[in-house]
Amino acid sequence: MGAREATRTDVPRANYTTQSLLAVAVEVFNLRGYDGTSMEDLAQACGITKSSIYHHVRSKEELLRLAVSRALDMLNAVLEEAETREGRAIDRLEHMVRGSIRVVVEELPYVTLLLRVRGNTRAEQWALQRRREFDNRLSQIVGEAAADGDLRDDLDPRLTTRLLFGMVNSMVEWYSPSRGGSSVDLADSVMRLALDGLRRRDPQG
Amino acid sequence: MGAREATRTDVPRANYTTQSLLAVAVEVFNLRGYDGTSMEDLAQACGITKSSIYHHVRSKEELLRLAVSRALDMLNAVLEEAETREGRAIDRLEHMVRGSIRVVVEELPYVTLLLRVRGNTRAEQWALQRRREFDNRLSQIVGEAAADGDLRDDLDPRLTTRLLFGMVNSMVEWYSPSRGGSSVDLADSVMRLALDGLRRRDPQG
DNA sequence: TCTGCCCGTCCGAACGTTCGGTCGTGTAGA
DNA sequence: TCTACACGACCGAACGTTCGGACGGGCAGA
C-alpha cells in the first residue's frame, strides 16, 4: 500500500505541441461551437489545465485564427492550381470541385470551423473577408465556363456557383471519415449529379 | 425651454409581444450566433432593458425553443403534405424540394437558426432529434423514387438526399429577401440543376 | 367629465456564476 | 543544472437571471 500522496508519476505528461493542441481544440469547437466552448472545456478535453493552454497559444482567438488559416490556405492552394491551368474553364471548374471535396475530407474539422465563422471577432471578420475573395474567384470560373457555352444558359452563373459549392460545403454537416468512402468516389458522385443531374436517362432502353 | 428633467414621453414604449420580440432575437442570434449573443445584446437590439425581456419569455433558451419549433413545424407541414400525395415518389420528392425552398424563403431567419443548432442545451438536442427524424423521412422518399427507377441508379440514395438538401439548405447562407428573386423561380432553378444537371445539352444545335 | 385604480410593460440594481486570462511555483527530462 | 511544460490560485469583467418598484393607457364609479 504505497504512499498515496506520492506525486502521480503514473499519469505521464501531456506534452502538447501547438499543433496537437489545435487539433483537439478544433474538434471541441465543432462539437460545442466556438462561443459555446470555454477554455475550461478545452482544458478538460486536453487533459491539462486552463493555464497550461496559454503556454502554447496566446489566446482563445489565436486558436481560431490558426484553424481557419489552415483551412483557407488549403482551399486557396487548390484555387491557384486551378487558375494556372490552361484550357477550358469547365475543366478548371471540375478541378475546383474535386479539389474542394478533397480538402473538405482531408481537413474536415478545420474546414467545418471555417464554414461556421460568424464575424464576431477581428479574426472571424478577417476569415470572412478571405472567404469572400475565394468565393468571388470561384464565381469567376463558373462565369467563364458559362461564357464558353459549356454550361446551360438558363441558369444564372452566380446562382449556379452558390448551389454547386453549397452542395460541396454541406459535406461538413454529414461526412464521417470512418463511414464516408474515399474523397475520389465522393467527387465522382458530386460531379455526376452536378453535370448530368439525378434523372434517369434513356428510360426506353 | 421646457423642463429637461420631465419624464421622456418623447420616447414611446416599445410594447413588445412575445412574437415581435422573438423576431428581433432570431435576427440577432443569426448575426452573432446563439452563444455569442448576450441578453444585453438582445436588449439593445430591442431598445428595452435586459430585465424587460424576461417579462415576455422565461429564459434565453426559450427564445431558441420557440424559434426552432416554428421552423420545424413549417417543414413538417410540407413533409406531411408530400407524404399524403399519391402517385410516383419522384413527384413527392419534387414537392419536398419546392416546399422546403418556399419555407426557407418565407421563414428564413427561423430556418437559419434551426440549421445552426449544435446540441449544447436540452432544447438544442430536442431540435436535433426532430431534424434527424425529418431527414430520415426525406431519405425514405428519395429511396422510393430510386426504387421506382426514376432516379439514376449509379448514385446512392442516402448520398443523393444529403447532397440535394444540402444544396437547398445552403440557401440560408446567401439568400437575401430583397435581392433573391421569388421562391418559385429559385425552386425552378434548383429542380433543373438537380434533375438535369449543369451541362449544356445538344451543343451541335 | 373627472378621479382612482388596475394591469401590462418596462426599468435599475443587484445576485451568484462563469468567462478569458495572469501569476508565481513546481517538477520531469535533457 | 537548466529549460520546457504544467500546475493551482486568483483576477476583473461579463454572463443569465431575479427582484421590487415605476410608468401609463384604459376602465369603473361618481
Q: Describe it for me?
A:
- The structure is a homodimer of 205-residue chains.
- By secondary structure, the first copy, chain A, is mainly α.
- Helices cover 65% and strands 0% of the residues of chain A.
- Chain A contains 9 helices and no strands.
- Chain A is elongated.
- In chain A, 34% of the residues are buried.
- The A-B interface holds A 31-36, 116, 118, 120, 149-156, 159-160, 162-167, 169-171, 173-174, 186, 189-190, 192-201, 203 and B 31-36, 116, 118, 120, 149-156, 159-160, 162-167, 169-171, 173-174, 186, 189-190, 192-201, 203.
Strands of chain A, count: 0
Shape of chain A: elongated
Biggest β-sheet description of chain A? none
Distance from N terminus to C terminus of chain A (CA atoms, Å) equals 80 Å
Name its key features.
homodimer, about 200 residues, mainly alpha, elongated, disordered N terminus, DNA-binding
